[in-house]
Structure formats: structure tokens, C-alpha cells
Amino acid sequence: MTPSNGDEESCCWVIDHLQEFLHGEMSEQEADAFRRHIAACESCMDEADMEAAVSRALRRCNRTVAAPMQLRTRVVQMQVSYRWQA
Ligand SMILES: [Zn+2]
């Protein structure tokens, strides 16, 4: 992977804090930094998209347990085929 803006450390931070961001548990300042990073970093944006898709699907099902791997894979595949059509 090519580090964008020599910013590998930020990528680690984004991945580490993805759940906090998705659940709105971040401070405004952190959320801003988070959004700025994923707007500029394609690999983190992909990662955030998939996590968000899984979170949305789970919330829709009213489930608080972790997604079984099979469901997770299916959601990710749906996301991919949706992108191909778009
Ligand atoms: Zn990144």
C-alpha cells in the first residue's frame, strides 16, 4: 500500500476509531479529523463504507450482537455489487 501524504499513522488511527465514529462517540474535533482523513484516503474510505454498511444492516435488524461472519460477508458483497451498478 502506498502511504498517502505519508500518513500511515492516521490510517491506523482511523481504523482504530471507526466504531467510535460510526456510533457518534467522538468529539467534534476528532470527528472532523476523521472525516478529513477518509475524504482524502481511499483505502480508509472503503473501510469506513463497509463498516457503515454492516452497522446500518445490524441496526435495521435491531440486533446488538456482533454480526456473524456470514452476514458480514454478505453485506460487503452487496455493497460491492451495488457499486458496480452505480
Ligand atoms: Zn487512511
UniProtKB/TrEMBL annotation:
Residues 13-44 form the Putative zinc-finger domain. InterPro entries: Anti_sigma_zinc_sf, Znf_put. Keywords: Transcription, Transcription regulation. It comes from the Bacteria. It holds the Pfam family zf-HC2. This is Anti-sigma factor family protein. It comes from Cutibacterium avidum ATCC 25577.
